[in-house]
Every structure is written in C-alpha cells, then in structure tokens.
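worker-3 :: picked AB hydrolase-1 domain-containing protein
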Amino acid sequence: MSPSTKDRTSVEDNSCRLQEIRTVTEPKVTIIAIHGLETSSAGTWVYKHKRVRTSNHSGDTPGQPTKAAEETNWLKDPNMLPLDVPTAQIYTYDWPGNFLSGSIDEPLKGHATTFLADLGAELRRQPKRPIIFIASCFGGLLLAKALVMEYQDRDRRGDILSQTVGIVFLATPFRGTAAAALAKWAAVGARLIGKESSQSLVTMLWRTKKQLKELIDDFEEVMAHPMPMPLRCYYEQQKTQMVRRLRPRILGRALAPLSPKIMLVDQNSASLSGARYKQGRNVPHVLMNKFSGRTASDYKILIDDINHFVSKAQHTIYGRSQAPSIAHVMIPGRRNKDFAGRNIELERLASLIPPSSSENHCPVNAIVGLDGVGKSELAMEAAYRLHENYSDCSMFWVRSDSEESLKADYEGIMKALGLPVQPDNAVREVNQELDNRPGPWLLIFDGVDEKETFFKKWLDSEWLPKNKVGSILITTGNRGIASKLEAVTVDLSFMNDNEALDFLTRRLGSTHAGIDPTGQDADTVELLRLLAGLPLAIDLATKYINNTMCTVRDYVELWRKQGGKMIRSLCEFPSGQQRHSSDVSRRAMAATWLITLERIQQNTKASFEWMKFIAQCDQRNIPISMIERETGVTLNDAIEELMAYSFVTRPEYGSQCIDVHPLVQLAMKIWLSQRGQGKSTTLRTIERLQLPFPTSETLDKWKDEIGHVESMLEQHSDESIGYVQSVWRVIYMAGHARYLLNDKTRATMLHGRAMRMEALNPANLSATAARLRREGKYQEEEMQYNEVVKQHKVIFENDHPIVTEQEKHLASTLLMQGNTESAIKIYSRVLSVEERMLGTEHPCTLATRRSLGLSLKANGDLAGAIAHYEALLRVEKETLENISAAAISSMDELAILYQQQAQYTQSESLLRRIVRRKNGIYGEHHPSTRASKRLLTLAQERRYSLSKDAGTAPRTDDMR
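worker-3 :: tokens ->
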C-alpha cells in the first residue's frame, strides 16, 4: 500500500483487508496486528479513558492523552508504538470475526486463505523485510492456521513464514475456553433474531473440540523445529462479566444465572509449549489488547519484547536459512496424543522396523489383525516413535486398499523426492529411487487387502525395493499376504481390560461424570464389556459421550435400548465382506454406530445426506467438492458433526478429501438395505452425477473421482438393475476415462459391461423381436417381446404408454400364433388403460379397439367383434363425405361380420356407403372398389335367397 492510503478502521461489507496505518520512508520491519472475535480494528486496539486529562499549553507529555484525545490507539498514536519502534511499517488486518453481528459463517481455513492471499499480494510489492505479528484472542488462531497452511503447501510456499521473526499473542485461547459455550449459545440466539453469526468459528473454542487441538499441535510442531520462531504469550488475570459481553440483551438476561464472571483465557489456555516467555496482565479479557499510555508498565514489557524481535531479526532469519535439511516425513494426519496401550506390540516394532545397514536385505514386517482393532493407529504411532529416535530417516505412507490410492500416494512421494512427476511410472520410479537412496527410509503400506490380482501387480516381494538401508511395514487383515511377502508378523488383537480402560479414560478424561479411573464401578465395567476392547468402538462411543455431554450410565442405557433385533440384523454382514471380523467386534461397532446415527438422522439432515452419498463411494480420498456438488450440501453444514463422531476423517490437516472407515460405510449400506432404500439410493446417486464427458480437458476431474464412480457402479449387478440409461451412460464414460488414463484393462472391462447393459435396452429388444417376425420365428419373437415388456415395467409404471405399446406387439405375436385368448386379454387390458388415460377418440385407442375386434373375430366371438366395430364407428362419427381410410377398413370388417351373422340388410346398407366412397376416392375400377362391390353382390344374393321376393332384386350383371 502507498503512504497515501487512508486509515480506514471499519470493516465494510464483511470484507477482509490489510490496512497500512503507519508508514516510514525506509522501513526495516513490518508489524501486522490482527483483531479477534466480536470486534474490528476500529475498537480492538483503542483504550477509552475514564476521564480526560488536560496538558499544559507549551506541549504534551508523551504518552498522556490531550483533551481532544479521549481514546488512545497504541498502534498508531505517534507517542506510542511508532515512537518506540521508529523503523516499523505498521498494518492492521480486518476480518469478519463478530459472532453477534456483521459476521460471515466461514470456517477458519477460509479466513486463513484470504489472509495469506491479501498479505502475500502486499509483500510481493515490497522488498523483503522481517515481519512481526501481534494477534489478539481468536486472531491468534487465525494466524496459526495461516502459518500452518503456508508451511504445508510446499508447492506454493511464500515468504511470510520465512520472514516472520516474532509473534505476540494477546490472550489467544490455544486450549479453548469453557466460556465458548456461552458464546455459542449467543451465536445461535443471534441467528434466531435475524443477525449473522459465525458459529463455525465459535465452536472451535470449546475445550473438547478436536479441530482446535489438532491445529495447535501442528502449529507447535512447525514453530519448534522446521521454522524456529520467537513467541510471547500474554494472558489475563481478571475475570470478565459475561452478561455485559453478550448481546442482545434478552440473551444476556437469559444467561445471567449461568455465568456471572468467567476467566475467558487463563494462563493454561493462552500458553504454547514452544513459548519460553509467558506474561500475565492484571486486566480482564477486553483490555488485553489495549494500553492506557506509554508509561504503563505492561506496555513497556510488550515494547521490550517487540524490540527484542527487531534486534534479533537478521540472526533469526539467517539461522533458519542455515538449518540442516530434514528427512521427508509423509504420514497422514497428526500424531494421536491419546494413544494408549499396545506397549508389547510397540516394543516389538521398535526392534523390527528401524532401518539398519547391517542387514543384508530390506526387512519386511507386517501388522496383522481384524478390522477395527487399530492396525493403522499402531503403525502411525510406531512411525512417529521411530522419527523421534532416527530424525534422518524418511518415512513414506502409502494407502494400499486400492490401486488408485496407491498410485496417488506414490505420485506424492515423487514430488517430495524432487522427481519429475510421471503418473504412469510413479511406482517404478519411486522404488528405483529408494533402491539407490543412501539415507535410511521406512515405507509403510497401509490396508493391504486380499485382492489377488492387485497383490501380484503391485505388492510382490520381487517388485518391492530391496535397499538394505530401508525398511518396509504393511498392515493387513490377511495373514496370507504377510506370508507371501515373507514378512515378520506382529499380531494385533482386541485391547485387554487395562488397555481399554486407559484408552477410554484418556478420551473421556478421568474427571468425566460417571467414569471411574479404576474401572471398578458397574457402569464402567459394563461399558468396557459392551465395547469389547475394540478401539474403533471405544473411539465412536467416547466421541458421542463428549459431544452430547451424557454420562457413562446414559450411554449404557442407550446401548440397551438399541439392542436386540436391529443390532443383530445390522451385524449380519453379507458373506465375504467382513469375514475377518468376529461377531463381538461387529456387534460393538454396530451398536455404537447405530446410537450415533440415529442422533445424526434426527438432528442433522445435511450430515445424513453426506453419509448416504459416502456409503456409495470408495473408502479413501473422497473429494469434498464431489460430495458438495452431488448432494447440494456444503462442507460447513455437514463435516463438523461427522468428524466429531469420527464417522469420517481427513487424511491430513486441511485436506480437501475425507476418508470413511469400511465398517461405518458397510453399516450405512445395511441400514439403507434394511429399509428397502439400498438400490434406489444407489441409482439416484448415479443418476445425479454431474460429471462432464471425459476429454483431455476434463480428465483431471475424472482422475480424482473415477474410483468413487466405479464403487457406485459395483453396488448392484446389472441383472438386478436392468437397463437404466443414466447408469449405462456413466459406465460408458468411466470406460472412456480409463482409456484416456491408459488403463486399458479397466477400460475394456467397463466398455464390455456397457455393451452387455445395452443389450438389455428394451429398444434393442424390440428391434430383435421385429427381426424375428420378419423371419417367421414367432415363438422366439414371443419370448423376446415378453422380455421387452418385463424390462419396460422395471423402468416405467404398468400403465405407461411405452409399456402398453409393447404389450400390443406381444398380443399381435400371440394372435399370429393362434393364441387368441391371450391376445384378447392383453388387448382388453390395454384398451381400458388407453380409454382412461388417452380418451375414447385417441388414435391409439381406436387402433387397439380394431385389434381387439379382429382378435374376437379370430376367436369366433362374432357378436363381440361386431359390438366393438360398431362402437368404433360411433366414436369416429364418420360420414360418407369425410370418412377416413382407417374407418373404411373397419367398415369392411364390420360388413363381413354382418354377413357371417346373417345380418344381410345391415351388411348391404353399409357396403353401399363403402362402394360410393371408394368410387370417389379410388375410382370404380380400383381393386378395393371392385372387392367391395363383390361383397355387396354377395350380400344381396344371400338376402334375396332368404326373402322369397326375387323380383325386387337388382340384376347381378349391373353390379358386376
């Protein structure tokens, strides 16, 4: 920004912006101040004096406000920060952080992304110089998130983190705050009365919120080792009157009995483990970012901290640039600090997995166990412990439950190793690099399944890297895979009672109402018995208890209520899908899942829509953008609750994809199937897919989503679905995408499937039936039309016009074979449908009536046939002048029927009309006209032979 930029301290239109409030000719350092929740830069840094002090006329004392200065903004007051750090260029950053008004409901990541973009754009216009941040309250969390995001985005990492030489945090709630409950209620109330509120931000302040804990873990790790950072943490020492803080007043009065005074951000919450210096201020929270004047003692302490950052700036930057490079650590997610038990297994892994040049080969080890016992968590904890003892050892995590996941993770390793990205050769290139790499490494294959072809292609002992400075670890539920790899196995079973109690206590907290740390009370004993030592079940149960604030006894009661038939049916997984899980583990997982599912279904429809979609996808790397696009439900509306209950997880912090545990996904499918919604949900999901046709321009989207599309297509067999045009289209497009991705095997399989489904297309079946009729193969034609009608009834309702049209083709085939009774039944049903839906005068209805009359005639029911033809003529309301060709044909048939019934007078009268009309249309010598004349002569002769009055008869020669 230019020096002429005006000082604007209000946030307009909820916009985020960087504002320069003080400039110097040759700045040496940049100071950026970020406000917190429920405020803006206009008020955050301003101290309002209780009374106005006057000064003498000769001049003002530095730091003392004049009569005109009833407020002191220490960031821009020329007698304060600008005077104490004269070489500083000072900015404020405004973002919409009000939880009671003027806020936008954007998650922390969105605000951090905007902050990085705004600051990066400004810094690119200036020479590089040291940066010092001053962050107040929630602004500190915004800053922490932004710095973590910049560090994790290696491809687009800028200069913000590398140029930062110090951070001052003013009462930032790193550990959350119990007062956030009141803030959250206030945010809800604000929405109810029509004001905006940023509830997604406020919810992070709950002490139990996992997102906050994960963010701070990441931030402390970045600040401590990769980017050593001087930090100062300030905390308040006076309580805040919460009722005064909460608006509107109606909410303040309602909450008054709950929290008269609260320490919003105490020393524990405001402290980071990486901050050597922590300073308290004897003020309430609202004054933590304000100073009365330059002579205030706590202001002097703050200025000393800032000047210390300035004096050590170049040393900090230089030391950071000279830091030795660190090994590549590519482990998804963050370390689980609540990890409990498994000491025997960890000790065994600690002796097996460290790479050692003394070995004459690359060791292969395997963690083998049932689904849900914590194989991946154990592998992750073992890897982190290895990193603590072998900091030079690179670690690479490869998801191996599908070929797509494996290839994607290998591409990520290629980028980390600096290799040219070659998607088709990523696996081969990375393994060759590891074979030639001098430094130690650990390669972890997580979730190797039992698919034989996949195993032979990618995870064969002859194919894996063999460098003796490396080590390989796999997790699998199939002992046979470990045997084929000649791996040393570490068996993992259910937790014992002590381990399960330790895990439960860590997740709930030993002070939680109803939990006995000794495990002796009846409720705790019963809960542990029900959870069966299954880590996944314990995790789901504790998430529910923490999020609903219920007691252990409450949860046990819920379990009992949900027991019985539903849980037993939920545990009866289809054969082959869960053959490695025991009945006990299935029951424990199913019950805990069911309790939580019912709560989500009742309270959050958005989250439930996500679950129904996710149930159709592959378990790993489901793009959030795909879920949002296909369900119409945004991330903010669903992800928080699903992650809170551990239904879904993110592979790593800030990832734009989510994973779902196979057992949770399977249970969701069974839940849908129990209610008869399985097939319909799958078909609806496929029909709603908004994927473009695969081309070179759209291939990136297909590359991210094709695995999930194929998973949807594999939910039900084509025979059970029949021909569905939208499904056929998706199969065809997926095959073409595989072709463009050079996966010829999958492309061939999908295109073959599309061709088989196309054969089920009723239109194609109809064409085949017509061909059989031309060839005189009426029995085969009948079978074909029966299949056509059956397929159409799957797609359409029984009375749909397309169905009735095919039924008429079938009736025609039956009639040609002499099966007149069956033909009559079909024509009669179709006629009643068409009269009801199309009307008696519709051409289709008239045509069906003609066919029914013909069938009745062929069946010998001449009276019935006559009745239909007479009705047909009455409906057509034809006269001799406008009679149609179709009506003339019907009249011919009726005339013949009259003669067969010896009704010669009616036949003769009708034929005279026909002959006159045909003379006018075709001419008297036309074959059709002459045929009608012969019928007329025959009618006359038969009538006269019966009448005895031959003298009145015209001469036959005249007629000829």
